[in-house]
């Protein structure tokens, strides 16, 4: 983007902030006796020692991610889930009761919640009937206080990818941050926006280890952005935001690219199979195209189908009260055996 300047939208208090400086941060040399951080030098009451504070910048984990994604470590932030990255973006760039963010419903709920917690106004422009961007309405709705547009692609709960050219239009014309949430990118036919980081200074790409990587319990989310934006993240994050255990296990998990790719392939094949089988059911009105590990299914009576499945101990997500998702259930792709149980139960519905 031609004359976009991060500093122009960064909050004054963040610009002027002196970040917390930890013991490990202040000492840079080589040492063997660490009496600087008030840790317990004797060890941990566990088989494994966790008595030392973890690397505040998680360099080993970031290097492993960099190898896989091809994005430099300096352009990478790790958060306690993507949710931490979303919260930090709002806190860094939006003045409470003054600035606003734009979200594009139906979409992921955390953008709005994080804004509300920070007392930041949320503007809404619904996706159109194809669940794509309404660029005209977006242009009309943003004002001089709009700091961030959140674009979820593939979108949760609808499952589709947002047209690339439309996101590029936002990136090229919006004088604020465009956050592209790619939590489901591994299941998508579209390519990631991480290759565009050098092109657009106002781009932030969110990814996560919680979905395709199968590590939701570790709470590791990723933000890729310009070095200048990453410096802002690092300035205001809690010093040790990813714990030692999560760092070690994430690093271990990141060695298993082949296993993860196998799951991704199997999940997309199961997605195709489920779409085909669900289409045969009389009470299914529409199955939306999916680039994710879930499908949005429009039914004749969502609540009653939901309850029928719950009676069989199968839980799906009821989205029927979400505007533009009337009558819809969101169904995560399970293992082949789980998907069989789902289909069997649906075949027995009334
Ligand atoms: C699941 C999900 C995330 C991941 O959140 P984590 O905090 O990293 O687990 C982010 N964005 C969307 C749209 C999601 O559906």
From TrEMBL:
Its EC number is 2.6.1.9. It comes from the Bacteria. GO terms for molecular function: histidinol-phosphate transaminase activity; pyridoxal phosphate binding. Its cofactor is pyridoxal 5'-phosphate. Gene3D superfamilies: Aspartate Aminotransferase, domain 1 (3.90.1150.10), Type I PLP-dependent aspartate aminotransferase-like (Major domain) (3.40.640.10). Pfam families: Aminotran_1_2. Belongs to the class-II pyridoxal-phosphate-dependent aminotransferase family. Histidinol-phosphate aminotransferase subfamily. This is Histidinol-phosphate aminotransferase. It comes from Albibacterium bauzanense. The lineage of its organism: Bacteria, Pseudomonadati, Bacteroidota, Sphingobacteriia, Sphingobacteriales.
């Amino acid at each position: 983007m031609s004359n976009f300047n991060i500093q122009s939208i960064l909050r004054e208090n963040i610009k002027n902030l002196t970040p917390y400086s930890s013991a490990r941060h202040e000492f840079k040399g080589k040492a063997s006796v660490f009496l600087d951080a008030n840790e317990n030098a004797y060890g941990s009451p566990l088989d494994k020692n966790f008595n030392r504070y973890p690397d505040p910048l998680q360099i080993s984990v970031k290097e492993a991610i960099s190898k896989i994604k091809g994005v430099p470590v300096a352009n990478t932030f790790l958060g306690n889930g993507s949710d931490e990255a979303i919260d930090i973006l709002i806190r860094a760039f939006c003045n409470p009761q003054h600035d606003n963010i734009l979200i594009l419903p139906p979409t992921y709920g955390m953008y709005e919640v994080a804004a509300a917690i920070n007392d930041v106004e949320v503007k809404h422009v619904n996706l159109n009937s194809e669940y794509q961007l309404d660029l005209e309405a977006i242009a009309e709705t943003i004002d001089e206080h709009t700091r961030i547009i959140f674009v979820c692609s593939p979108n949760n709960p609808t499952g589709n990818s947002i047209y690339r050219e439309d996101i590029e239009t936002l990136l090229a014309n919006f004088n604020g941050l465009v956050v592209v949430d790619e939590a489901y990118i591994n299941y998508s036919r579209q390519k990631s926006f991480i290759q565009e980081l050098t092109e657009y200074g106002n781009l932030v790409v969110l990814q996560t280890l919680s979905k395709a990587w199968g590590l939701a319990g570790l709470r590791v989310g990723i933000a890729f952005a310009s070095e200048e934006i990453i410096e802002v993240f690092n300035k205001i994050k809690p010093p040790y935001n990813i714990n030692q255990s999560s760092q070690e296990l994430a690093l271990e998990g990141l060695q298993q690219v082949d296993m993860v790719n196998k799951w991704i392939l199997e999940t997309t094949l199961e997605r195709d199979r489920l779409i085909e089988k669900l289409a045969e059911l009389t009470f299914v009105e529409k199955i939306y195209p999916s680039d994710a590990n879930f499908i949005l299914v429009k039914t004749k009576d969502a609540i009653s189908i939901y309850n029928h499945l719950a009676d069989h101990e199968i839980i799906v997500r009821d989205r029927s009260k979400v505007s533009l998702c009337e009558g819809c259930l969101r169904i995560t792709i399970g293992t082949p055996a789980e998907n069989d149980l789902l289909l069997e139960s649906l075949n027995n519905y009334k």
